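A quick aside before the break. I want you to see a complete sequence-to-structure record at least once, exactly as it would be stored in a machine-readable document. Don't worry about memorizing anything.
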Amino acid sequence: MLDTDFFRQWMTATAAAMDREADRLTELDAAIGDADHGTNMRRGFAAVGDVLGKEAPAAPGDVLTLTGRCLISTVGGASGPLYGTLLRRTGKALGEAREVSREQLAEALGAGVAAVAQLGGAKAGDKTMLDALLPAVEGLGSSFGRARDAALEGALATVGLRALKGRASYLGERSVGHQDPGAASAALLVGALAEAAGSGDGA
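That is the input. The structure line, written in tokens, reads:
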């Protein structure tokens, strides 16, 4: 079972990943966006780390809703609302349970991803963060490692897609050949989840 400390570890690992990969995310965004995705994600998750260091959420869902609120208030552009919605809705779906199973997390994350799709009006194949998140949710039903691998594969697959949503969609065919930065950061979020679980094999 996954407790509150696990979810704090997940967000801490995510913050470390966003900091480590910020330059790469910004390079990806420079090709098809505003060249600020890495900077924004680093700043947002650094703020999350500060908030979680000062507050003591009582339940796993509380960790995610607090994180979501923090991201909405600190991350610029579309990323703040999208990531904030993802984590707040996932947290809300988890409710006040003090421990949750991997299967329950997969179901809750699915609700969060659906909320992101509704907010952004995107679907699979539109070259957005959903191309990493949707397969991750499916993979999480089997294992943390499967979720991580599916998210990474989905993010890499956006290279061959034409962007149909977001700023990159303005480029039309010129968006083909570039990895979507939102999908790349979403894969980092899921990778941090597998890291927190300490498993790539089926925990």
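Two observations worth writing down. The beta strands are 2-3, 99-100. Confidence is low (pLDDT under 50) at residues 199-203. We'll return to this after the break.
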